[in-house]
Structure to design on (565 residues):
């Protein structure tokens, strides 16, 4: 599907195109997300890209009130917490991502096991603008501004 | 899994630590010298520093915290040990435990007879958001950190997974904090040398002094539920669920078993050692356990030839309160999903059947990350030799364990100790 090598740079280039790409070992079929060049199951190095469905379920989450500087620059902090979680895709692998479509001031209302759908968040300006992976809680798909 | 044995026996013949806390005027080397002196004074017979053949020192990130790289030879120099080989060991918050294991391996291999193991971290010079960023460097900076995870965030995510599976409530976590502060109040080296009740009384007195309304918390639980006094850091973890940002150092002296008696008539023997690694948190099948800790402990139990029930006392890596509960299950002290009940019921209290973190743990004693794994051994040394003072557990502590975790469990080290 692509000649891109299995690096984080390639993963984030796909993300800019609003594609959540995983990779698959041609020898044993194991899926990997994030992509990696050596299969953790069979140690094979014949790997190929696959585009995921972007659908999954929430395995764990938290709402962050003391934010790292990158998230503070995005407007988060004590008065504006955000939700981050671990999502398992329907294809199997899991990934860390921001969770949107929730009220991060009401964590008691967020439930593990709920469906989520991939969305792509743009943060930063000019050359510092990057696309970040996120999932919309409840599963309704739409691009984030 | 093949049972591994040490090539020859290793004994601990001295152990000491600096005071843990925030010390604006002390650098890593000053903190280490304080720990080294305490270790020296703990050796019952005599220690000739010129007899120390190697130094392994655990340190996570002196570059980012202090702008000082290549810290091992400096530490050795300030302790008066130049030109002994000095090696820095890094395993995030398990740096100290991994340094200890390297020291043990160096002696067991026959290369050295006398090895100094240290750990040091100087964290409080940086503003808190920079500390958050520096600690985040122990996560996966390509995939976990861009998602917005922080270290409290990782453990909070494990907590939500644990709570959802086993029905635990945030109150279970609070019991761990209360217990560890009770112990820390009896440890004059602790960063927080105070019970939570003492902290409440202090806050009330300060409010009264300033002429502000005096808070009327009914008890410690009410205080811990107060969003102002105990704010959420990463839900469900609040301030008092998190170990503090601390400065500190610790040092232990290891010798080949056959030389132990020339240093002391009461050595502590290292009889089990295990270490394992793991992937990023999201790449694990089960978020309610730390797999590398289970593997490391199995290796250590097999080497020692003992079972979890034999362990009289343990110092475990409670960087966050949930981590102590998970550790108590990973080490086999309680079945999966029962650790939080044990914490609620007081089973892990100093006078309970399975004392955990009698030192106050990382929570109250403090968590200068590279030092923590070595400071755990200082507590074991004191408890096993009956010299832990007011916090000494009753009875004969013949078998004890330390459990040191790096990051979210990408590195785990477990050691088992015996007093004969």
């Amino acid at each position: 599907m692509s000649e891109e090598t299995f690096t984080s740079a390639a993963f984030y280039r796909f993300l800019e195109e609003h594609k959540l790409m995983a990779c698959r070992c041609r020898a044993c079929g194991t899926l990997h997300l994030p992509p990696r060049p050596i299969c953790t199951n069979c140690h094979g190095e014949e790997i190929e890209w696959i585009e995921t469905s972007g659908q999954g379920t929430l395995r764990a989450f938290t709402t962050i009130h003391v934010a790292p500087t990158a998230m503070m620059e995005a407007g988060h902090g004590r008065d504006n917490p955000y939700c981050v979680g671990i999502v398992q895709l329907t294809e199997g692998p899991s990934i860390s991502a921001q969770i949107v479509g929730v009220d991060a001031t009401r964590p008691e209302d967020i439930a593990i096991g709920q469906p989520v759908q991939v969305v792509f968040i743009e943060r930063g300006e000019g050359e510092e603008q990057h696309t970040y992976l996120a999932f919309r809680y409840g599963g309704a798909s739409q691009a984030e501004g | 899994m093949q049972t591994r044995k040490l090539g020859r026996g290793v004994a601990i013949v001295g152990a000491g630590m600096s005071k843990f806390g925030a010390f604006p005027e002390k650098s890593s080397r000053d903190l280490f010298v304080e720990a080294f002196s305490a270790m020296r004074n703990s050796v019952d017979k005599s220690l000739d520093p010129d007899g120390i053949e190697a130094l392994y020192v655990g340190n996570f990130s002196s570059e980012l915290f202090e702008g000082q790289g290549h810290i091992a030879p400096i530490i050795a120099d300030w302790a008066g040990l130049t030109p002994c080989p000095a090696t820095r060991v890094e395993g995030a918050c398990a740096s100290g435990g991994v340094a200890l294991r390297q020291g043990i391996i160096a002696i067991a291999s026959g290369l050295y007879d006398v090895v100094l193991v240290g750990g040091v971290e100087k964290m409080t010079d940086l503003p808190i958001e920079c500390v958050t960023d520096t600690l985040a460097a122990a996560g996966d900076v390509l995939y976990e950190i861009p998602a917005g995870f922080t270290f409290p965030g990782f453990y909070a995510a494990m907590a939500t997974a644990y709570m959802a599976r086993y029905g635990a409530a945030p109150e279970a976590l609070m019991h761990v904090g209360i217990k560890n502060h009770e112990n820390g109040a009896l440890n004059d080296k602790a960063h927080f040398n105070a019970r939570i009740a003492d902290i409440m009384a202090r806050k009330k007195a300060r409010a009264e002094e300033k002429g502000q309304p005096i808070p009327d918390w009914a008890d410690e639980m009410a205080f811990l539920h107060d969003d102002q006094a105990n704010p959420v850091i990463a839900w469900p973890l609040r301030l008092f669920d998190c170990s503090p940002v601390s400065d500190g150092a610790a040092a232990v002296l290891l010798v080949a078993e056959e030389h132990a008696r020339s240093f002391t008539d009461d050595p502590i023997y290292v009889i089990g050692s295990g270490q394992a690694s793991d992937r990023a948190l999201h790449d694990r099948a089960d978020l309610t356990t730390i797999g590398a800790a289970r593997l490391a402990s199995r290796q250590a139990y097999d080497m020692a030839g003992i079972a979890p029930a034999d362990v009289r006392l343990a110092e475990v890596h409670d960087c966050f309160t949930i981590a102590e509960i998970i550790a108590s299950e990973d080490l086999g002290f309680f079945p999966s999903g029962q650790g939080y009940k044990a914490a609620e019921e007081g089973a892990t209290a100093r006078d309970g059947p399975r004392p955990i973190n009698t030192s106050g743990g990382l929570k109250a004693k403090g968590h200068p990350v590279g030092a923590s794994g070595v400071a755990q051994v200082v507590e074991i040394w004191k408890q096993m030799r009956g010299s832990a003072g007011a916090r000494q557990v009753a009875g004969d502590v013949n078998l004890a364990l330390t459990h040191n975790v790096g990051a979210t469990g990408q590195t785990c080290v477990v050691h088992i100790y015996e007093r004969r």
Q: What stands out?
A: Residues 102 and 110 of chain A are 7 Å apart (CA to CA). Residues 55-144 of chain A form a domain with the OB fold (Dihydrolipoamide Acetyltransferase, E2P) fold (CATH 2.40.50.840). The interface with chain B takes residues 8, 34, 40, 59-72, 76, 78, 81-82, 84-86, 93-98, 107, 111-113, 132-133 of chain A (CB under 8 Å).
